[in-house]
Amino acid sequence: MKYDVKDMSLAEKGKLRIEWADRNMPVLQLIRKRFQVEKPLKGVRIAACLHVTSETANLMRTLKDGGADVKLCASNPLSTQDDVAASLVKHYEIPVFAIKGEDNQTYYKHIHAALEHQPMLTMDDGADVVSLLHSEKKELLQYVIGGTEETTTGVIRLRSMANNKVLEYPIIAVNDAQTKHFFDNRYGTGQSTLDGVIRATNTLVAGKTVVVAGYGWCGRGVAMRANGLGAKVIVLEVEPIRAIEATMDGYQVMPVAEAAKVGDIFITVTGDIHVIRKEHFEVMKDGAIVCNSGHFNVELDLEGLAEITTSRRTIRDFVEEYTLKNGKRVNVLGEGRLINLAAAEGHPADVMDMSFANQALGAEYILNNAKSLEKTVYPVPQPIDREIARLKLEAMGVSIDTLTPEQEKYLASWEMGT
């Protein structure tokens, strides 16, 4: 079996992490038990490009138990948990190509390695596998039935491909499931982002001014958690409806040029390029902390920052101090990559339980409906979304009501009136 991980001697520690995460992923456990019996993915070759973490490991176990032939590579160079990667190879015989801190060349070499078995399904977190298949590896498209996409940035890229009629196979947008974007993006990103900032800096959040760029589900979660820790929160937005929502939620809303002068901690979660630019870095307070929790590090214009920098040094793990020509210092966390995975452990397993349940059931859905699906991006079918929520509530010991026949009739009719 081919693989490329940092150190196989880390495998035992990784196995414990996988087991710990599994205890907090009851929905995925139930799916795995069914998959072990039914084998709905039997003989299906899957190339997965996801964050290589203990939670992802349990998704890989589920896919393999469902009969799939899985290969896994990293969707981010800094998010890999090397012990988990080693355990997947040693204990679960799943080929992994991921090393924490790998350079860009190695990153793409690993994606190529994951594609060597001519995948029939792709699982992406950022659409890098899909992009590669549509550019350098077009000869492999003939084998692909469909794919799934985990994150907002990837869905944006894939919808662009579909709109331009260049997408060659159907994709399920796992990110758009309510049990993903509401729970994962809001509560997962909110908690894990602040966790990463605190682990990297050991700074006190209370009393600080935290600037959150973007007020989508991730931005809502980050703002909520920063506010809960006692921060004064400023939101940056370009969309009027989200801006008014942030205002009504009690946050200040202003342009980035104004916020740059008063913020202590800056967190980008927009999915767009160069949200914080050279002219913004120049006016920041001395000692400002800047990080990104959007998928790619392009949200921070680090090249522009380098142009106005006289020196830089790593002052703490995951903290690079830039001394600017004006004498001020700006601290960039985790090389501008996902701070919640670069400096922390990403989302809690409780959160990823539902996201990866969507991945597993999304893969099964594509296989069962491939002949009727067009080459475009589909939402997760609502029955799957609702069933995952039901199972999660059950696991949490939460009960809900059901409509009476009278109530169902009332909601479905127009005759009864008031």
TrEMBL record:
Catalytic activity entry: S-adenosyl-L-homocysteine + H2O = L-homocysteine + adenosine
GO terms for biological process, alphabetical: L-homocysteine biosynthetic process; one-carbon metabolic process; S-adenosylmethionine cycle
Pathway: Amino-acid biosynthesis; L-homocysteine biosynthesis; L-homocysteine from S-adenosyl-L-homocysteine: step 1/1
Domain of life the protein comes from: Bacteria
Single GO cellular component term: cytosol
Molecular functions (GO terms): adenosylhomocysteinase activity
Domain (S-adenosyl-L-homocysteine hydrolase NAD binding) ranges: 185-346
Residues involved in substrate binding: T53, D125, E150, K180, D184
Function: May play a key role in the regulation of the intracellular concentration of adenosylhomocysteine.
Protein name per UniProt: Adenosylhomocysteinase
Organism name: Candidatus Moduliflexus flocculans
Gene that this sequence comes from: ahcY
